[in-house]
Write the structure tokens for this entry.
Amino acid sequence: MVQNSGVADAVSSRAPALDGGAATAGWWPQDRLIFSYLLLTGLLIGAFWRQIPGAGWLLGLHAAAAWLLAAAARAETSEGSLIWFFRHWYPLLYVSLCYREMGLLIPAVRHGDLDAALARLDFTWWGVHPTVWLERLQTPVLTEIMQIIYTLFLPMILLVAVLWWRRRRWGEFRYYAFLLSLGFLVSYVGYLLVPVRGPRFLLNPLQSRALDGVWSFPVLRHLVDVLEAAHYDCFPSGHVQMTLLACWSSRRLSGRLYCIFRLYTLLTVISTVYLRYHYTVDLATGVALAVALIVLAPRIYSYEKGRGFVTVPSCPGS
């Protein structure tokens, strides 16, 4: 593969770079990761065929998605082509569809939730239920701000991808796509192993005050309810885990953006409990997984590419 003029940057990014966007046929690490996930969840659907609504359709979609992925990996392409664009961006589409699938798989496979166990663990840690205790700090303005912060989750993590794309840093973009894919898919496994809906459901009878915002709160709250309410997607906290991964990645774009992300990450952590979406044990697990992925993902990526592990340099602009 032809390297671009920024060879040092390409190597230090822990991901291969492409000269002028030229891409070669072959399986990239994110391809193998997502193909393996599709295969494993396809086997799960087969094992629980009778319990899963529309199991036949799901298997058909899995087969089509896997075929499209494999076909794109075999195709020779060049910068600006449709296949080239698809290969770079499809992981973000695939993991979002895999998330929607969890809403069907988890109720069929697990037949219940573990909310009570996590609520007890939270109470053991703090001596109170954190979501109930935080009522004393609740104001409409604060609630409005927290809901906006929480709802900006996807735009914020996609911002890093867009900025790498605009700078034509294809190697960094592909590594970030791999990192996001790995983070999301790991969290989905957590949802399946520990199905939890969150304190806004289990502890609602203990709350003495309803959350109330100023202007956009009802619309944003309803949007999140529509997207997440039946997905058992609390353990680990994907918001915390993925925001930490985006924050860590942003430091290589600019010091200023990294500072913004650090503030946003802190507010996201607070919002998850303040808005009653998560138990604090969800947050702790999300942090632990993010740290593990920050350490392990570059090594996995380098191994898949047949490259040695190298160290990321200090971020520019800091």
Q: What stands out?
A: Confidence is low (pLDDT under 50) at residues 1-22, 307-318. The two ends are 31 Å apart (CA to CA). Residues 7-305 form one domain.
